[in-house]
């Protein structure tokens, strides 16, 4: 197939008319598919159903250490759950605090506390004229929404092949004390799927921030969410920080939302001793303790970090074919046309898709008209504004293979149409 | 028995020496009892064990309306749980938002949001020079801790027989726009056990605050926690507010922490339409949704508000004898001595005990030396400072009857000793 840009106007027109007919046929099918969010499918949720039975008929409701998990207390979580997450994140259990079901909630709270109370005795951000966060783009819309709510100014940082542009990060962080944080999804990044290189992780650890209360929000959501026999390796940022004496730079987060149940998982924060003391000084006033029945269910079902790693193979078996359906379609339909690029991740929940500049919104529009809802185009950028209007986050996990095949066929069609419209009007 | 104050010094000395011998015998027993917190006992927790089995072997994981409770979403809770709590609090389900397991967490968040983001467009409290809360005393230490953390100045409001001194409340609220809130436990109050009269509730509803963002934190923790066949009746504050057009004044909270499991309950906030929209505008950024497996367990176990009311009778059967052990001992040992007064609640978790002024800390000290830990004396007042050093919160639910008998015998002994020490040194 000829690249679209090399076609004559007449060829483009003919191709477009052909596509338009196909598109109309799609519209006549009245599809109704939602590919907007990174949600696990029903089959994935079924994998953890035995977890709901694990306390059935049990009489021993005590966690390690003897605490009755049905009663108040155990602010930072039960020991067995702390150990599992400590193993997954390669930290000590003392550096783990277990929360409710949402790691987003824990990130939000860290920022809310920083705004209202300040980090380790620093001035509360709400009292400052200006607070800024660095946002590697494309990134996760829910991170950006938190900043937007608190009026935190967001600065786009381009993502490179191996992580954020660290020269730019360093420039901002080390010279501007109103820069208080950066959002990172360091492994199987949302949405690009890339994993930060060791050099990038070391560059983070080596930052000398102008602001004492600058924190790296290290959202390691996909730490065990592999889609490959040769999974990506992420250097442990706390190890890198130890070499620099900079362990207080990092708040790390993860959860079991995409391991057990998105609607009933366990979230944790990992942090240095000093950060943990600071976070606990707030948390201990906020609550008497998290839901520990859910914790015991997880502990007695998964037992260990290895138990979780084994379980994740079952998720992979369900997810990988879906990624392949999408990627195969992209390869077949789009790879030779010179109108798109896309990532081929080793893990995580997303494929990041770039159209020609200025085409992404139109693709979203065309898909929606034909009954397929994508992640809102632009959402992968702060303020919902993709400056080049080209990035689309593709979330293949929730639909069935059949639905996905339909949706991706339509998607490719819409990409072609939007590209031709652009080229013909250029 | 003669009142202690009417005794001669010699009689007091003789009585004290006798008590001291008894006290020494107690110390030799090396007791180790914790009466510090309002925790349910093991037997109470056992009552809800079938709730853990209710999803066993179930395949229908959809809540009313069709949402899969294992997946993301349903920010404000599943319909069946909203309906149960709406019934309990006598509001509409639309006025209910379900959170995690801790109503304290929801109160904290409301204040944290007000501090960092502001209520309904008002200036965030963190930007103001001074923020004050009214604190009916004695009250709940964890409410006060939140204010202390945020640097909110607390003003003591004396509790009367039927609720806070409303003349004083009105004086502050209507004339000082730095007064932003008041803590209330309107039913079976912590620790006094009293329930606000209809007049008091109406006086709250009729407040015309100087501050637009003044809110009543209506912690209805013990709404169904009766200890009597003639339970107290609390006027619905939203009904009273409707008459005044003041529904935006109130955030109401409750939870199932002392209905099902303290370590795995469900918390809710109830609020007016405008408040709910404001709270949700924050909550929707904070999380994708609460733990809904726990919600479905509650819904399928309790079914309705009446299901909860029936269940609470079982709690009463376990708790009431414990309150009686304490009250009987107080009646027998102390009522004639003119050295103490105490409440006789129709519900809730506490008995509020007043020593002679200046004696409470000494009672706490003596009890602790003999191995019985009480709620930290002073904790029922802001900043842990009881100006008269007389109030002690007695929490009878957690210990066994046998332990409680020992503890209360010791307690009475310590009250007598501390009183005599005071009288002899006067």
From TrEMBL, chains A, B:
Listed Gene3D superfamilies: Aspartate Aminotransferase, domain 1 (3.90.1150.10), Type I PLP-dependent aspartate aminotransferase-like (Major domain) (3.40.640.10)
InterPro entries: AspAT_Ic (IPR024551), PyrdxlP-dep_Trfase (IPR015424), PyrdxlP-dep_Trfase_major (IPR015421), PyrdxlP-dep_Trfase_small (IPR015422)
Name this protein carries in UniProt: Aminotransferase class I/II-fold pyridoxal phosphate-dependent enzyme
SUPFAM superfamilies, per database record: PLP-dependent transferases (SSF53383)
Record's keyword terms, sorted: Aminotransferase, Transferase
Pfam families listed in its UniProt record: Asp_aminotransf
Signal sequence residues: none
Transferase is among the record's keywords: yes
Matches recorded under PANTHER family: AMINOTRANSFERASE, PUTATIVE-RELATED (PTHR43799), ASPARTATE AMINOTRANSFERASE (PTHR43799:SF1)
A GO term for molecular function: L-aspartate:2-oxoglutarate aminotransferase activity
């Amino acid at each position: 197939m000829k690249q679209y840009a090399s076609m004559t106007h007449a060829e483009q027109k003919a191709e477009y008319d052909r596509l338009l007919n196909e598109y109309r046929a799609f519209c006549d099918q009245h599809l109704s598919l939602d590919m907007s969010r990174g949600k696990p499918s029903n089959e994935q949720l079924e994998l953890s159903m035995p977890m709901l039975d694990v306390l059935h008929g049990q009489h021993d409701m005590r966690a390690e250490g003897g605490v009755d998990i049905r009663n108040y207390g155990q602010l930072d979580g039960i020991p067995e759950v702390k150990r599992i997450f400590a193993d997954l994140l390669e930290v000590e259990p003392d550096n783990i605090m277990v929360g409710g079901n949402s790691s987003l909630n824990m990130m939000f709270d860290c920022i809310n506390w920083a705004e209202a109370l300040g980090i380790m005795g620093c001035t509360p951000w709400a009292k400052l004229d200006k607070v800024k966060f660095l946002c590697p783009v494309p990134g996760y819309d829910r991170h950006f929404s938190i900043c937007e709510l608190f009026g935190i100014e967001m600065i786009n940082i381009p993502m490179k092949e191996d992580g954020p542009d660290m020269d730019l990060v360093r420039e901002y962080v080390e010279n501007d004390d109103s820069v208080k944080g950066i959002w990172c999804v360091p492994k199987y990044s949302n949405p690009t799927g890339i994993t930060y290189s060791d050099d990038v992780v070391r560059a983070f650890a080596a930052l000398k921030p102008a602001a004492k209360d600058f924190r790296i929000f290290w959202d390691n959501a996909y730490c065990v969410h592999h889609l490959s026999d040769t999974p990506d390796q992420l250097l442990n940022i706390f190890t890198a920080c130890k070499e620099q004496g900079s362990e207080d730079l990092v708040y790390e987060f993860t959860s079991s939302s995409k391991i057990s149940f998105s609607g009933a998982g366990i979230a944790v924060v990992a942090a240095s001793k000093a950060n943990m003391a600071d976070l606990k000084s707030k948390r201990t006033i906020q609550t008497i303790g998290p839901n520990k029945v859910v914790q015991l269910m997880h502990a007695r079902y998964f037992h260990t970090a290895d138990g979780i790693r084994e379980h994740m193979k079952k998720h992979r078996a369900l997810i990988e074919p879906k990624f392949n359906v999408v990627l195969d379609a992209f390869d077949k339909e789009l790879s030779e046309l010179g109108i798109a690029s896309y990532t081929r991740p080793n893990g995580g929940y997303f494929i990041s898709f770039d159209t020609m500049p200025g085409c992404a919104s139109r693709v979203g529009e065309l898909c929606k008209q034909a009954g397929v809802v994508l992640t809102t185009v632009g959402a992968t950028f702060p303020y919902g504004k993709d400056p080049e209007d080209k990035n689309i986050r593709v979330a293949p996990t929730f639909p069935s293979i059949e639905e996905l095949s339909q949706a991706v066929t339509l998607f490719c069609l819409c990409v072609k149409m939007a590209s031709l419209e652009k080229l013909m009007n250029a």
